[in-house]
Amino acid sequence: MARYSTTLNDSDDPVAAASELKIEFLRICPFFDGNGLMSRLLFNFLLMNHYPHILVTFGESRSERSKYRHLVRESIRSQAPGIFSFFALQNAAGSALQQLEGLGPATQLELSDMSRLKADLSLVSGRNQEEGLPALGDLSLN
């Protein structure tokens, strides 16, 4: 766990680092049951230091769950967590927007979280293109 914490703290892209650790956790699959739930909990726990006001949710609708499962499997299969990290960053931004709308006027700290998420989104998107990873729209859900 200390290595995971160091990896996340040294990263300039906390969502990508948390995504990588989530995919690694799922690849190891340490429990008989509950690995997915534990990985989502771990993902949010790791992000709390960087984005304390944001709880990232995955798979709230049937199509969202299907996309989530597909991207997790594809990331594990191809050993490319960047495939999942872009999806995770989109969900983090969406979760942040929903939470901000529910709170009414946003505080400076919450606006700071949003600007960091936008910067992370462009960073991950650019990295995926540089590495030749497919865009989310290019992946089939079959």
From TrEMBL:
Domain of life assignment: Eukaryota
Pfam families attached to this UniProt entry: Fic
Domain named Fido: residues: 1-90
PROSITE patterns xref list: FIDO (PS51459)
Protein name as it appears in the record: Fido domain-containing protein
Organism field: Arthrobotrys oligospora (strain ATCC 24927 / CBS 115.81 / DSM 1491)
